[in-house]
């Protein structure tokens, strides 16, 4: 069965849609399924933020088909690994885990790379280049995740 990976941020319109699109572009979709969700419910059903759509398009990835949804405790059953973008998302998701098995599935995305930056900053209220920076942080982590997944039996 395919490995299922869920990317989580607060709004599911800026960071986690980028993480979904970037990781999915680096792996075989028959083997690895990637989805994303937000801990908040402000933008349910919306497309990703235009600035996330633009920066991913610049690097050849189309995320415009994605629609915002909220993280649900059922996601613990439906996904193998849950990556959160920052500590606040991490705390919110892990507080919903019903057992240790579920808690073990939750990681911070930047744990996957050697980086002084531990969190993917929220670019929503910042200037446009925040999205460029966030794209590259996520891209680096997703390259590492893809490499590890390729090497797994
Ligand atoms: P995201 O960014 O968590 O990367 O999708 C945000 C988007 C919207 C809001 C906050 C963060 N908001 O408060 O509406």
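-> sequence recovered:
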């Amino acid at each position: 069965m395919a490995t299922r990976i869920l990317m989580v941020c607060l709004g599911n319109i800026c960071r986690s849609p980028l993480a979904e699109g970037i990781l999915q572009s680096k792996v075989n979709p028959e083997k690895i399924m990637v989805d994303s969700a937000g801990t908040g419910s402000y933008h349910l059903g919306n497309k990703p933020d235009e600035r996330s759509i633009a920066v991913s398009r610049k690097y050849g990835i189309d995320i415009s088909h994605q629609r915002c949804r909220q993280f649900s405790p059922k996601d613990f059953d439906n996904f193998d690994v849950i990556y959160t973008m920052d500590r606040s998302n991490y705390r919110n998701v892990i507080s919903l885990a019903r057992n240790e098995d579920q808690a073990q599935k939750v990681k911070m995305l930047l744990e996957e790379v050697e980086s002084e930056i531990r969190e993917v900053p929220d670019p929503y209220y910042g200037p446009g280049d925040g999205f460029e920076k966030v794209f590259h942080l996520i891209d680096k982590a997703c390259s590492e995740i893809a490499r590890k997944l390729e090497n797994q039996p």
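Residues 129-150 form the longest helix (22 residues).
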